[in-house]
Design brief:
four-stranded antiparallel β-sheet; about 40% strand; secreted; about 5% helix; mainly beta; 6-blade_b-propeller_TolB-like
Length: about 325
């Protein structure tokens, strides 16, 4: 009896874009997607991130099922693949101290320093309310806890694609990294899902494991995005343009970090009440193209999907085209 899906990590060929529903190809192969193989398989991949060293960082939750059917055969792992050879080059099992009984690691941001070995991953524990840091060089992890990782009790009501529901327990989720500052560090921007507000912390703090117990005042609260400002995914370009999904609005928002973080400096680069229902992830590639995936996740979790309709879409557009004629346009800040 087959449980779940055949493969959890897949890719599609960009040479076959004329196909309306292209076949998914297991990455890196079928064997690596073996369910509940805790040594070499992938059980349920939730987030991925490619870095400038052509490595693919893959978060595996080790669980399958949903709600009362959830099973947890394997521990959380961070898997890193070489995109040239398609071979796994590291598999890191999180320490017991990195997680708790409520843990659900929802997102990942990868920070490169002066070399490929000088790399850190930051991972948001959405339901356990923590931020986990992993050092590639030291091959170890540590966890930060903070009140800013918690949900806002006034922001737990959602309206997406005609569905009204409450996700009032959802904590820290979306992450994005600023370009390197003149002082040498980056800024990690983050926000809980049940929140309309943005927060920030220097990566110099996060990369110092001795700061875990003594960094409360290093975390900064920024102003809110305004109503209907729930965000699950965000990314920042090397020019300092942050893009993020506004899931209540079926839209992609933007903010130019040359301006103060304020709702008056936030704009919309795209909105579609049919095709952008739950834009679940957003990335910017090395060529300056923005990639967005929408998947009607709220319908899947709380209602049902119409399998006669298109439920999963991938969009791509140049960043400079998207932000043209918006408050985020780099040209207006020169």
């Amino acid at each position: 009896m087959i449980v779940g899906i055949p493969s959890t990590l897949n890719y599609i060929s960009l040479h076959n874009l004329g196909t309306k529903s292209p076949r998914l190809i297991p990455y890196p192969d079928w064997q690596s997607n073996e369910l509940a193989n805790c040594e070499s398989g992938l059980t349920t991949v939730y987030r991925i991130k490619a870095d400038a060293c052509d490595r693919l960082w893959v978060l595996d939750t080790g669980t399958f099922g949903i709600g009362n059917t959830t099973q947890n055969p394997c521990p959380y792992t961070l898997n890193v693949f070489d995109l040239f050879t398609n071979r796994r080059i590291r598999r890191y099992r999180f320490r017991p101290e990195d997680t708790n009984s409520n843990t659900f690691i929802a997102n990942i941001a990868v920070d490169l320093g002066n070399s490929c070995d000088d790399a850190f991953a930051y991972m948001s524990d959405e339901l356990g309310y923590g931020l986990i840091v992993y050092s590639w060089l030291e091959n170890k992890s540590w966890r930060f806890n903070h009140g800013y990782f918690l949900p806002d009790p006034l922001a737990g009501d959602f309206n997406i694609g005609g569905l009204n529901f409450q996700w009032f327990e959802e904590g820290i989720f979306g992450l994005s990294l600023s370009p390197v500052l003149t002082s040498g560090e980056r800024i990690l921007y983050f926000s809980p899902l049940a929140s309309n507000r943005e927060f920030a912390v220097s990566t110099r703090v996060l990369q110092n494991s001795s700061k875990v117990e003594n960094s409360y005042h290093e975390f900064i609260a920024l102003p809110g995005r305004g109503p209907n400002g729930h965000v699950t995914a965000k990314v920042m370009s090397e020019e300092g343009i942050q893009l993020f999904n506004l899931i209540d609005r079926n839209a992609i928002g933007c903010w130019n970090s040359a301006d103060p973080y304020h709702c008056t400096n936030i704009d919309i680069v795209d909105k579609d009440d049919t095709r952008l229902i739950f834009p679940s992830d957003i990335k910017i590639d090395n060529s300056g193209y923005v990639w967005v995936m929408s998947d009607k996740m709220s319908n899947f979790l709380l209602s049902s999907l119409d399998f006669d309709d298109i439920n999963f879409r991938i969009f791509v557009a140049p960043l400079n085209v998207l932000i043209d004629n918006t408050k985020c346009n780099v040209k207006t800040h020169q």
